[in-house]
Amino acid sequence: MRRPREINIAAHFACRLNHMLKPSETGPALITGCSSGVGYATALAFRAAGFETFATARNCAALDHLRAAGCHVLTLDVTDEAARRAAVEVVEKQFGAVGILVNNAGYGQYGPVEEISLDHMRRQFETNVFGALRLSQLVLPGMRRASRGRIINVSSVAGRVSALGGGAYHASKFAVEALADAMRPEVEPFGIDIVNVLPGPIATRFEATLLRSIPDTGGQSPYLLFKARLAQRMHAFLAPGGFGVLTAETVARIILQAATARRPRTRYSVGFFARFGPIGRALAPDRLVDFVTRRHIRNTPLP
User: CA–CA separation, 156 vs 270, rounded Å?
Assistant: First the structure.
């Protein structure tokens, strides 16, 4: 006979399973930005859970390990309309309507707003906002016909709290948050959920892309010191093992939970900074926040 604690544990997991959707109840999963980091870990998590998983990236060769793990792999640049349409069509032809769309592809454009060109700002929005929005539009008709579906947007605490040095990136994530709030009640009558997952800092290749994105405008830039200190600050902030820094696998588990919960929350805030950062920001006066953040990333030496 099992001991009481063993019975309680078994009952807990049975109850949890009853509250989670099975792959047969959802349909195939389409995940963007799977070449590394959160997307890679998410594709592995979905495949391990038994989902027909379509892992995508701009460079399909970067997905060989996911192919070996049993994922279907597709080349997909989320800023390319033909590629977006083709990816959705492949999934629908093989397995019917996309059941779960995970909009994960994205990057961080950093640097002082004055020095970010409009072309770079447009590219930031094309990738982080318009790519996700357009893929959502493309999968929604099939989801509506199936009377089920879930769109998971990998957003960020950067979509709730803005800080100096990250204006372009924060603006794109604020847009993702706003669009989700508008779309959620629009599609809910069709049996479709919109869920945002908001991680705090993650130790992935995101940092390398972020640092490369800071514009180099020469030694005469009025922001020369600011950009150097911004790079130092972000490198330290995203260091693996640092306070509040998440792993890609931790975020992937939450994405899978958000995708399979029978009654999902509208938002899943992951980690200390995502849970408490927006609360602190809402309570603190703007000028105080400005003062504190300027001391962390100074443009000129303090007197």
Answer: 9
